[in-house]
Amino acid sequence: MPEMPEVQGLADFLRGRVVGRTITRATVAAIAALKTYDPPITALTGVTVTDVQRHGKFLDLATDGGVHLVFHLAKAGWLRWYDALPATVIKPGKTPIALRVGFDDGSGFDLTEAGTKKSLAVYAVRDPAEVPGIARLGPDPLHPTFTRDDLASLLAGRRTQIKGVLRDQSVIAGVGNAYSDEILHVAKMSPYALASTLSDADVDRLFEAMTATLADAVAEASGKPPADLKDAKRRGMRVHGRRGEKCPVCGDEVRSVFFADNSLEYCATCQTGGKILADRRLSRLLK
After folding, report:
1. Which Gene3D superfamilies match (predicted)?
2. Most buried residue among 190, 216, 262, 273 by CB atoms closer than 10 A?
């Protein structure tokens, strides 16, 4: 799933290519992906892109027509860029393409989604805040005004595992399964630690780990074309997706806990005092 750094990379890439360009087509190939009807998706045709912004994991193309094209790539979605948009006809139900957008210089992009579980979402709105997922977003952890005390306030009183808190978009925007694993590894913190029990020193470490990890990942994604962002993300992971490999800090084995549709990775030596997390949904530290 693309998270904040990759979505920021896509925003930067698109901003450098489509701002000032007029949209000549916006074709929906997967009708279930389109979540709005007013304004219609056809309202994007003939308007010029004025900016590209990120809201959490959402991408927002603003236009001079007062319409925003907003999309969320979900777990298996991606953006495929073309300097010359293919002339092939999109056949609904016969392709992974959910949306095709073209510009007046012949360039464009497809939004694609792999797999059978379709969660990619496209919105045509007058204000990004009309998108429910954006309206619910918590603060962006890389915003210049976000402080360590802000994080402490968000965690206070939450008897929820810190892994879940970091992934909750209504608490902190933009962090998902992969980067929450990375942040907690850098912070030397168990994914099952309760947010409300963290000490001041724990919050200090978590804030530093979160801002540094995300800032480094955003910097790594900057300037890369969409085709290279996924591999760059994988290469940058210390523990996420590296089950069975050596922890780059201590050399212990990276371990996983599997859930219904994903997993978390961690280092027992660095994060749980050497204790192995039981591999079940309501896992507790093994005695």
Report:
1. 1.10.8.50, MutM-like, N-terminal
2. 190
Contact 47, 18 (CB under 8 A): no
Give pTM, 2 decimals.
Answer: 0.93
- Residue 283: per-residue pLDDT: 44
Over residues 84-93, the pLDDT tens digits come to 999 888 887 7
Domain that holds residue 29: 4-135
Final residue of a structural domain among 111, 135, 159? 135
264 torsion bin: left (phi>0), alpha (psi -120 to 50), beta (else):
beta
Q: Report pLDDT digits (tens) over 3-34.
A: 999 999 999 999 999 999 999 999 999 999 99
Helix axes 200-221, 148-155, angle to 10 degrees: 120
Query: Could you tell me the two tokens for 30?
Result: 């997967």
Token representation of residue 147: 């402080």
Summarize pLDDT for 178-203 with one digit per residue, the tens.
Answer: 999 999 999 999 999 999 999 999 99
Q: Are residues 188 and 222 in the same domain?
A: yes
Q: Are strands 108-113 and 121-125 parallel, antiparallel or unpaired?
A: unpaired
- CB count within 10 Å of CB 277 equals 20
What is the rounded end-to-end Cα distance, in angstroms, of the chain? 33
Q: How many residues does the chain have?
A: 287
Bridge partners of 34, per DSSP, are 122
Residue-wise burial string across 18-49, b where 16 or more C-beta atoms lie within 10 A, e elsewhere: beebbbbebbbbbeebbbbeeeebebbbebbb
Neighbours of 71 (CB within 10 A): 24
Do 214 and 143 contact (CB within 8 A), yes or no?
Answer: no
- Residue 282, pLDDT > 50, answer no
